[in-house]
Amino acid sequence: MDTEGLDDMKRFSRQIIRRSVASGALVCTIAAASGCGGSGSKSEAGQATKKGVTVALDWTPNTNHIGAFVADQLGYYANAGLKVKFIPYASTQPELIVAKHRADFGFSYQAGTAYARSAGGDVRKVFANIAKNQYAIGVRGNQGGISSPKQLDGKTYAGFGTPDEGPELKFVIKKDGGSGKFRTVMLNSSAYQAVYGGQADFTISVSTWEGIEAKLLGKPMRYFEFSDYGLPSQYSSTIVSSDRYLKANPETAKAFLAATQSGYQYAKDHPEEAAKLMVKANPQTLKNPELVTLSAKMLAAGGYYGGADGQIGHVDPSVWSNYGDFLQANKLLVGSDGKPLANAPDWSSYYTNAYLPAQ
Question: Hey, which end of the chain has fewer CB within 10 Å, N or C?
Answer without folding.
Answer: C
